[in-house]
Amino acid sequence: MHLSMPLRIAFWQLMIGIVGGLLWWVLWGWKAAWAALFGGGIGALLSLYVALRFSAVDDASPRDRVSTFYRAEVMKFVLAVVLFSIAALLFADVYIPLITTFIAGLTAYWVALLRIKD
Question: What is this structure's pTM?
Answer without folding.
Answer: 0.88
